[in-house]
Amino acid sequence: MQENKRDDIELLDGWFRALDGIGANGDGSFTRPGYTDTEDAMIGAVADLARERGFRHYADEAGNTFVHNGTGEGEYTLVASHLDSVIRGGKFDGVAGVLAGLFVLTKIGESVPVKVGIFRMEESSTFGVATVGSSLVTGRLNGEKLKSIRNNSGETLYGRITGRGHSASPQKIGGLKEYLELHIEQGRVLEAKKLPLGIVDSIAAPVRLWVTFTGRQDHSGATPMELRNDALAGAAVFITDVERFALSGSRHANVATVGVVKNSPNAFNVIPGEVALGVDIRGTDRESRNRVVRNIRRRAADIAGERSLACSVNEISKSDPVKLDAGLGKKLSDSAARLGIPHMTMPSGAGHDAMNFAGICPTGMLFVPCRDGISHNRHESAEIGNIVGGCHVLLEYLTHRKE
Ligand SMILES: [Zn+2]
Fold first, then answer.
1. Which residues contact 19 (CB under 8 A, 6 or more apart)?
2. In this model, does residue 317 exceed pLDDT 90?
3. Ligand 1 center from residue 103 Cα (angstroms)
4. Residues 190 and 106 in one domain
5. How far away, in angstroms, is 82 Cα from ligand 1 center?
6. pLDDT at 403
7. In what order do the strands lie in the sheet with 310-318?
8. 270: domain range?
């Protein structure tokens, strides 16, 4: 068993090393943006690994790639993730899931129809939209909408996709029996609990608000305290209340973050006249998360009233949390238990390709811990042994299910 595990680790480690040169910045970080030559090179390299093992592959109209056993026809289990990265991202985000798929395919032989999916542009770093490839083929993103989505240089996402020979209105994906994804946790929960595996039961989704407090811009020396309308002082109270509201609903994995503060005019000798705050609110239970949003909106208005400020709240995006298939989660958990792998059920705070499939077919997700919870960073690190453990849980589930 130990001997086998060493071989498995070597196999997977070799695959990671085969990709090490692509999009490498030389400091341990990787820049592999979606729908670029670098992402193409990643897909090409994984396709080479697949061909070496005798598997066939094809691309769909959106440029997503599928590696499969057998003929590739009929109903199949999709084990998928992505190969693109953020700017200066890590080695494991997405890649771990694709290589886990290839591992499952390698070990399972022809007995269970499996496809390994490589979805395009999962990261939102260049065009601000996440899970593009999987959203397009599941009908959750309309090709027309891509014409209005631009990067910093003004290029549209529609232009990028079609310019590289793909379609922005691809045929929908079919034939799915179920969807499985292994991913690094990108948080510290598993590490803190010293567990090698998490079974994901839900994926949180964000509501994003711009909250703007407007007061009066005055001289910081000549204006007495009782005559001020300091927008930043009001914003400061608001920020700590945002934290308090999220904490009160933390049972549903609610989190709320003020990640952007635009203070104007931002000078030593001027009382802040206007402050715009970017607020990101997430949770796995829609009702509970929406309650936090309502509390935050109400509190912003109250603070403005108490301090004679003007206040506006603009919702810039809203998506709903996704529940993964409870039955499938239970089976994955049973499979882990049979293999003696300690694990816990947990929510995902970050979005993943899996969330696009939850409405279409039974969808399950596994997390493996990453060191210090660091991701989207050159220090991102995961134990190959834990990834191998996750792969064996998928294998155990898929082969056991067939009996
Ligand atoms: Zn990812």
1. 42, 45, 46, 95
2. no
3. 18
4. yes
5. 7
6. 46
7. 255-264, 274-283, 205-214, 310-318
8. 205-318
